[in-house]
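User: Here's a structure from my thesis project, written as structure tokens. My advisor, Dr. K., wants to see whether a designed sequence matches the one we expressed. Can you design one independently, without my sequence as a hint?
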């Protein structure tokens, strides 16, 4: 009994040492979290590219509207701008009555109203040289520099690459070369080679090769604005006709007319996984440029269905 008691005491002592050691170790670590919001080390946006990169992590985060320049200021969609700078959606609010966006960050709470050239930081109003604006499809765009600086970031503009770089004020400028390289690569949209021969245009504006081996529905011309279930395009890979390379090329060409290149690459990589009847592709979706893309093929199916919807 006495020996068991000694072993128990020794075990408790060991656990206490481990707990204390773990606490000391944790105290030495830098925890970059403030009120459940991330302290972002770097953010990079590029004009005309619907992605941004946080802390050098690629592939980037997709936005539904690309940043643009107006009156020498870069505008970014409010929620994506807030998220990129470490403000989660629960700390981003929109007041429809006053057309005002509010972001509650680590260092300040900012409010900006559509058409009003000022930023309100912790209740104090400051005049700025541009005003937030609304763009299709109903997105609130805020001037990136004023928001980032108000939330405690330093901002730099690279004219050569048309990029905006943000990092915590007072810290050294981080190396964002890999992020910039990634965003530049996204700006260079590979031109999908148009298949030889004539094409016809659907009501939704897609050019479809007339001689394609893709499986097309008879009612393809009816798809577009106003179509049931917001379906814009429906077609498929036909395994019974062979020549998958040409079908894949036609599919990429069609999708590339409306979707960004990264999404097209991801969709086609998934489609190409099925080359025979006894393979299965579970239903998978992507989103790009205000559209939703779905791909599916059941086991035993002689084709791969590709559908594009309006979101």
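Assistant: Designed independently from the structure alone:
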């Amino acid at each position: 009994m006495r020996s068991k008691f000694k072993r128990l005491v020794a075990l408790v002592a060991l656990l206490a040492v481990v707990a204390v050691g773990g606490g000391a170790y944790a105290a030495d670590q830098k925890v970059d979290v403030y009120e459940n919001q991330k302290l972002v080390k770097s953010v990079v946006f590029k004009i005309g590219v619907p992605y941004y990169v946080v802390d050098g992590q690629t592939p980037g985060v997709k936005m539904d509207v690309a940043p643009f320049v107006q009156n020498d200021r870069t505008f970014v969609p409010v929620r994506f701008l807030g998220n990129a700078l470490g403000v989660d959606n629960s700390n981003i609010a929109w007041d429809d009555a006053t057309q005002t966006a509010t972001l509650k960050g680590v260092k300040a709470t900012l409010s900006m109203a559509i058409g009003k050239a000022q930023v309100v930081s912790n209740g104090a109003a400051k005049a700025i040289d541009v005003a937030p604006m609304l763009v299709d499809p109903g997105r609130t765009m805020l001037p990136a520099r004023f928001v980032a600086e108000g939330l405690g970031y330093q901002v730099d503009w690279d004219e050569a690459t048309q990029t905006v770089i943000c990092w915590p004020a007072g810290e050294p400028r981080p190396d964002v070369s890999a992020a910039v390289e990634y965003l530049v690569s996204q700006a260079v949209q590979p031109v999908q080679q148009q298949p030889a021969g004539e094409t016809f245009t659907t009501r939704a504006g897609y050019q479809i090769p007339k001689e394609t081996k893709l499986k097309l529905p008879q009612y393809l011309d009816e798809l577009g604005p106003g179509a049931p279930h917001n379906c814009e395009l429906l077609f498929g890979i036909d395994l019974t006709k062979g020549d998958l390379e040409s079908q894949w090329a036609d599919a990429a060409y069609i999708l590339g007319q409306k979707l960004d290149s990264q999404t097209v690459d991801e969709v086609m990589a998934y489609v190409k996984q099925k080359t025979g009847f006894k393979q299965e592709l579970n239903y998978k979706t992507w989103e790009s440029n205000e559209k939703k893309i779905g791909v599916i093929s059941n086991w035993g199916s002689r084709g791969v269905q590709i559908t594009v919807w309006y979101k």
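When you compare it with your expressed construct, this may help: The first strand starts at residue 33 and ends at 34.
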